[in-house]
Design brief:
The protein is α/β, with parallel strands linked by helices. It folds into two domains: 2-136, Rossmann fold (3-Layer(aba) Sandwich); 139-236, Orthogonal Bundle (Arc Repressor Mutant, subunit A). Helices cover 42% and strands 21% of the residues. The protein contains ten helices and 14 strands. The strands form four sheets. A five-stranded parallel β-sheet has the order 2-1-3-6-7, with helices on both faces. The chain has a four-stranded antiparallel β-sheet with strand order 8-9-10-11, with no helix packed on it. Strands 12-14-13 form a three-stranded antiparallel β-sheet. A hairpin with a 4-residue loop joins strand 9 and strand 10. Helix 8 (167-178) packs across helix 9 and helix 9 packs across helix 10 (201-216). The structure holds calcium ion. Calcium ion (CA) is lined by residues 20-21, 63, 65-66. Calcium ion (CA) binds at residues 20-21, 63, 65-66.
Length: 239
Amino acid sequence: MLLATLGAVPEPKSILVVEDNAALRETLVDALRAVTQRVREAATLAEATAACVAEPPDLVVLDLGLPDGDGSMLLGALRALTMVPVIVLSGREDEDEKVALLDAGADDFIIKPCSAAELLARVRGQLRRSAASAAARTWAHIVADGVEIDLVEQRVVRHGVPQKLTPTEWLLLRALVMHAGRPATPRQLWDMVWSREFGDPSVHIRVHITHLRRKIEPDPSKPRLIVTEPGVGYRFVVP
Ligand code: CA
């Protein structure tokens, strides 16, 4: 009975595959359908970030060499808010890099090319591990003076009063948290949340930030979570 429990791999709600090589991405997605029906895919760093903002995945398979940047940037952003398993796909054999990736918070890595069997074994191993650890399942739970934010349950309680955020405000909040500790320009936030090309990002973002601050800041007149970076944009400060 105990062995059966330990051996069981719970079906994750979703896995995100980040790989710019279309043929390889297809292969990975097909293989991972053995684990969950909901395998999402991204070909660029920007798409991957937007995918994480739209819906937090339960596991990420991450290529490093992406057309718009290095996958390790996403790893860093994810580690600011979640211990969700990240398996790095690397075409590189460099030992120092493997160590650096593990130090940066990767849970495992696979050297390309890899077999479907090896990929599934690694993925199942990480899912088993995360099922046993509440921390790995949980996306950031943010607690500041009198404010509690649960990004997965989409719950904000401010000074004892539950706050109702709109779907857009949740997307914007996740985008800010994905960028935690680093300044984000209105354009970057806009691309993560709206992914469309019209409108003036700075005006829209400013309006939504104002609304968000009223709901999540301990004191909206003195923002501590969403701080303005003069001339640049905004920075989310993890308390
Ligand atoms: Ca690549």
